Amino acid sequence: MAEEWLTYHEAGKRLGSTGEAVRYRALRGKWPRRRGNDGRARVQIPEDAQDVRTPSAQPVRTAGTQGVRTPSARRSDQALTHALESHIKTLQADVEALKEQLAASSGREAQLVADLAAEQAKTAQEADKAGKAIAAFAALAESFDALASARTRPWWRRLVG
Question: Which range of residues forms the domain containing residue 40?
Answer without folding.
Answer: 5-57
